Structure formats: C-alpha cells, structure tokens
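The material for today's practical consists of a large collection of protein records. A record pairs a protein's sequence with a compact description of its fold. Instead of coordinates, the fold is spelled out as a row of discrete tokens. We will come back to this pairing of sequence and fold again and again. Here is such a record, shown just as it appears in the course material.
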Amino acid sequence: MGSISVEASTLRKIGIRLTSYLSIIYVIAVVDRSNVGIAALAMNQDLKLSAAAFGLGAGLFFVGYAIFGVPSNLALHRVGASLWIGCIMIAWGIIASAIGFTQGAHSFYILRFVLGAAEAGFLPGVVYYIALWYPAGYRAKPYAYFLSCSVLGYIVVGPLSTWLMTVSNGIHGLAGWRWLFVLEGIPCVIFGIVTLVYLTDYPEKATWLEPEEKAWLHNTLEAEHCAEPPAEHYSLGSFLMDKRLWLMVGAYFWWNLGNLGLLFWLPSILKSASHVWTNQTIGFLYSVPFICAFVGMHIMTLYTRRTGDRASVLIFCSVVPFIALTVSAFAASPTLAYGMICVASCCIYALLPIFWTLPAEYLGGKTAAAGIAFISSWAGVGGLLGPWIVGLIKDATGTFSMAVLALAVTFLLQGCFVVAMRIKRITPVDV
C-alpha cells in the first residue's frame, strides 16, 4: 500500500468511526442545551419568569460549564475518552430530562447550572481527542465536520421542539414544554451507554486500523511534535503567563457572549417581530440562520485549507457579524432585520473550526487538554453574560433593538483579539 493510499485510508477510517459518531452526539448535546429557548415561548409564562430571570437561568448553564471544564478535561486525559465521555453523557441526559419537572425560577437555575457542569467536558474533550488522532494540517476538516453537525442540532431543535411541544401538550396533565425536556434528554442517556464500549481512547489501541496505518499516524504525529514542539507548561504559573492562551480566551469569550446571547433569545426576538407568527412558524424560522451557518462554515474551512490563511478568515468572520447585526438592530423592516441575522450567522459559526486548530498547535500534551478546557471554561462566563445582558436590556427598554446592537459589538471585540494573536499561515492541504 503506497504512502498516499495509507494516509487517505487512515484518515477515512478515523473520520467514519470516530468523527462521525462524535458529531451525532454533539447534535444531541446542542438540542439538550438550546431547547430552553424554544421552551421559553410557553415556559416563561407558566413559571412567571421575567426576561432577565430567563436570561440568567439560560446563562447559568455556562457557569457550571466554566467551573468544571478544566477538571473534566483533565479527567478525560487521565481515564480515557470512552469512559469519561460516556459517563458525562448519561449524567447530562438525566439532568436535561429533569428540567421538565422544574417548578419555578430557583429549580430552573439549579438544573441549568448542573446541566452545564455535566456537559462541561464534552466540547473541549472532543477538541483534544481529535488532536490525538489527526496531524495538525488535517484537523480543520474534522473540526469543521464536527462543529457543523452541532449547527445541524440548531437547525433541528426549532422544528422538532415546537412540534413536540404541540403534540404532547396536556398528555398526563403536563404542559408541552415539560414533555419537550423529558423526551429530548432520553437519547443522550442511550448514546452515553453505547459510548462506554464504542470509542477508542488512543491510536495505539485502534484494532480497526491496519499496522501500516497505525505506523503512518504515529510517525506523522511524532514528526510534527519533534519539528516544532508546542509549549508544554510544567507549573500553573507558566501556564497562566502564556500570552497566546489569554488571547485565545479573549476571542472565544466574546464569541460566546455574542453568539449565545443571540442563540437563546432568537425565538423571542422573532416572536416580538411579528405577533401573527405561530410557535411552529418560529421554529422553522429559527432554523434558517443555522442553515446559513452550516454553509458558511464549510466554505470558509475549504478556503482556509486551500490557502492556509487562517488570520484573514477569522478577521472576516468577526467584522461581518458586527456589520450585519448593527444593520439588523436599526432596520425598520422585520424582513431586513431577519436577513441580516442570517448573514451574521454565516460567519459566526464559520470561525469555530479554524479557531479550534490553534490551541492544540500552541500547547501540548496535558497542557493542551488543560488549555482547551481553560479556553472553553472562561468562555462560559460569556455564555452567562450574553443571555442575561439581553434580558436586562429588554426589560429596561421594552424592545430587543439595543440588545442586538450590544451583541454586534461583541464580535468587533472578538476581532481585536484575533488580530492580536498574529496567527501564522499553515501549509495548504487538499485531502
């Protein structure tokens, strides 16, 4: 078997067995964390939640996410992906279903916090896990595939959740939004059990790879490490003094603040734009920006892989959302405002697969596991503030216009951190 065919067959097998499976799981995770935005169409009135109270509860997910992200990823590094990811999936599936039995603001706050704590290790864990299996030049493609499948979760959650709310409303005396949480948490528990026996922790344990395929993968990863060893930190002080780490934290923090502020409030923003739209109509309208995001993510990733120019793409994906959301905030036409949100979404999510190639490249070994989780965890603060700030502005002004403008500014600030990173080009690849 020639070197090119060994390379291609190895990457294809890893993609089919691991990346595809993890992507399916991420769709489920996205549904479980974001269905609260759809449930709010009925839940807020039933529980008598103000806009600020709902925003706080939605954002508390990311407080638990921030606190437990690093410990969770270090645990994955120690015990292996199959055991750790499987266990946290079972936990968050049970908690996601339990939100359906919440009785008021306080129980809603607690369950959202605990759900974030349970899910904290998944995204950073998968980012780290993919870095163990793919050489640096090939990571953008699996990251794009994995993260674009998360966008599929956002596409699915609107129509699916509004349909479940409608057809289940009143069964056994429970409101439809309660059944929504219960039913959408169950698949995660099932997949968590499967994960315990399905995932392979390290390339060395991959019995489904041929010996020459394992040899190519091992030699390629080892050659990369020796040619340009990443910064391995052996103390907390040196880890926290790494300037590049904090620049990545800053960029991802502002991305989360803007993105999640928009994500959780989009159904309510659409509802306020037209009172004639039914919840089912809003569910379908909610999906369209994420269809745009799915397309944009793949276009930008393809361009980056062919040119190696990551910096320009990341800057572009910061400036366009700023401009589009600013126009949306002041647009007199609901159609124009909605169209600009779709344009912004094309670039908001296109940033992710390119951004996540950076931490594993700059950091190494245990430091990479901790660094990826550290970046993701700090961004959890943005995840708390985004929905909460939108709720506070909405309560104060009575409209969403100034809140959308505030979200626009977050993407401009994100771009400032991207520029400060001075990201270098990578060698273009065609595989």
